[in-house]
Amino acid sequence: MRPEPRFRVKGWLSDEEFRQLLEFSRYVGRERGLSIFELDEKKLADSALSPAEVLRVLESFKDRIMPEDYKEVQSYVTERGSITISYSHGRLTISSKVFLKPLIQELGRPEVKYDSGAKSYVSPPYLYADLLRFFRSKGFLVNDLLGLEEKAKLPRSITFKGELRPYQQEALEAWEKNQARGVIVLPTGAGKTLIAVAGIARLGVKTLIVVVTKEQVKQWLDALSNFTDAAGLLGAFYGDEKRPSYITVTTYQTAFRYVDDLAGEFAFLVFDEAHHLPADKFKAIATYMPAPFRMALSATAVREDGKHEEVFPLVGGIVYQKGAAELMEQGYLAPFIIRRVMVKLRPDEQKVYDELKRRYQLFAAGRTFEELLEAAKKGELNAIEALRVRAQMQSIIQESESKISQVVDLARQELEKGSKIIIFTQFKRQAEEIAEKLGAFLIHGDIDKDERLRALEAFKRAKSGVLVVTTAGDEGLDIPDANVGILVSGTGSRRQFIQRLGRLLRPGPGKTAVLYEIVVSGTSEVAQSRRRREALG
Questions:
Q1: Boundaries of CATH 3.40.50.300 in the chain?
Q2: Which of 115, 161, 296, 446 could pair with 274 as two cysteines, CB 3.0-4.6 Å apart?
Q3: Which parts of the chain have pLDDT scores under 50?
């Protein structure tokens, strides 16, 4: 064991100076005009002074302590008063000569666990910033071997060239006050991307932006080019294109696949369309990357499965939220009208639906959908059959020919007014039928990427027209002058509803957006419609 070092102090000490040194050392005596002290391990451990404060006291005596002695006692205190944090293989390791258990208990994070093999504590990487902040607040010297605070700085500062609206400025400031971490919830069309771009410019650190689609990669790169002077610092990392740079845009799929390679490189994580983050594999991106700064962007604060509650804390919790109605009142989003259009099943569809409903009630035996799901997971045959029949019922409702006829009529009426219409459906077959009847542009997941882009660009250029999209169009669809939406088939998801409504809310001179909901009367769609509208409450 390294012996406790002595240090010699020149000149006479006042009573106060003497007491200061006795806080962490013992007096040995005087020799040749020098007062001799020896560091005391027990006093160092019990002292009210933190290691950093002990070093500051020694620093105040630096000119009076013999130079060779000063270097040795400084090294001794630093070694025994420091905590080392390192990163490797998807985890942080916390080690120290200090007895860490009381500190870890005070930290109160059950994710930090003792590894008896390594004789140190280990932590998921997302706690990196919290650990640095906590140990420093306790006066410990942190030996940060990952060193993201320094190595992730941009090679030059960048300037934000955009102009934030008042609510965007409020959102940015709320995020900054939360130590540059948190979820910003604003409706589609409210300019969440611009807030993130401003945040990137302010932080000035290496940034990874995670988006859903390849089309969104391009949109983000365009936004960064248009609203900053970051040219030469931008890169993309997805599919066949692997050009990482200081500010890199990637997709959720790619970030998950390469999380180990990306983890120690970026200090700022931006999650676009953050409702995707709770998926188990995407959650790993937030968990296994140590980036201290985080921003998540979302059109809604909730997921129907409740998983937002376990993931949003990984990025700092919700720091700012405003709804579409409030921004509409302030003039930042186009005013909108939601019209529910009721239709009936055709007689042949109604006959099949009634028979399926009878069978569903027989197998369900009065249980709720959630109860049936739980029973089906356990292998109960009646529950499995009830869910299968329910899916058939939903298919009849959502793909009813009555719906298609109503949609075509509505679209033609709106085209006569010069409207620019987006039709939303869940089903490829239904989308193709509607597009064919209206001579409309079409986007769904099985259409080649280049063809989808051509259709999208052509629709953007058109003054009036119809675009039919499946869920492939729910992400990254940016048609500022679209003013009419027709919701043919969907779910009760509030998130999806807000997202689809948001596609219509870019403001324009004299613009009032209209969203039609086509709902089959006397079916579960009526309740679904009610749940969707609750999201606007």
A1: 166-322, 336-342+400-534
A2: 296
A3: none
Q: Following DSSP, what letter does each residue of 511-535 receive, concatenated?
A: --EEEEEEEETTSTHHHHHHHHHHT
Q: Domain spanning 166-322: which CATH class is it, in words? A: alpha beta
pTM, two decimal places: 0.75
Q: State which H helix or E strand residue 253 sits in.
A: helix 252-257
Q: Residues 217, 223, 225, 230: what is their CA dihedral angle, to the nearest 10 degrees? A: -90
Which one, of 49, 47, 99, 56, lies nearest residue 74 by Cα?
Answer: 56
- Tell me how far apart the alpha carbons of residues 283 and 314 are, in angstroms, rounded to a whole number: 9
Q: Quick one: how far is CA 247 from the chain centroid?
A: 17
> 3-state DSSP call for residue 93?
strand
84-146: CATH class: alpha beta
Q: What is the pLDDT of residues 34-76, one digit of tens each?
A: 999 999 878 877 777 778 888 889 999 999 999 999 988 888 8
Q: How many CB atoms lie within 10 A of CB 231?
A: 9
Nearest to 103 by CA among 88, 120, 124: 120
Superfamily of chain region 336-342+400-534: P-loop containing nucleotide triphosphate hydrolases (3.40.50.300)
